[in-house]
């Protein structure tokens, strides 16, 4: 039996699951949003909600696939890059986080599958991307560099601010995410 991943009913299911992911992820960030508001660090709020962006972009990606529309050049690239990097990155991040930092937790164990699920959707998105124009790469590169800068140096990556990571693990995870970003941009470039 062959599974058609572009079946409209299957895509509806993905849309629903991604919407549930948006709501659940936003709910888990409410305490962090309150902390940022109390500290008057409003500018960081949209940047530390990785899970919300992950599910939101996947929601739009599956919506585009379901409605048989073409991805806009920049937005399609952003959907692919974010779901590839942070979705697939979670398959390694959460196990290492539980092993070296936090210990086993059902919440973090669940995140391996919940975020990894979006990472695998990036394959669906990639197959339907338009040929990327060279000028669409510059804003994407700038956005990811800015996102990384805020995450590393301004506490935008909450796990690094809320938990004590061993230095080697922190460096490994930063290099791993950068590696995934470079790989994702390379795949996008090869697509062009």
Can you walk me through this structure?
There is one protein chain. This protein has 192 residues and is mainly α. The protein has one domain (8-191). The protein has eight helices and no strands. The chain has helices at residues 8-38, 45-48, 50-66, 73-102, 106-127, 134-153, 158-162, 167-191. α4 (73-102) runs antiparallel to α5 (106-127) and α6 (134-153) packs antiparallel against α8.
Supply database-style keywords:
single chain; 192 residues; mainly alpha; 0% strand
Number of strands: 0
Main sheet: strands, sense, barrel: none
Low-confidence runs: none
Query: Quick check: average pLDDT?
Result: 91
What is the number of helices? Answer: 8
Layout of helices and strands:
Layout: H1 8-38, H2 45-48, H3 50-66, H4 73-102, H5 106-127, H6 134-153, H7 158-162, H8 167-191
Gist?
This protein has 192 residues and is mostly helical. Helix content is 80%, strand content 0%. It starts with 7 loop residues before the first helix and ends with a helix.
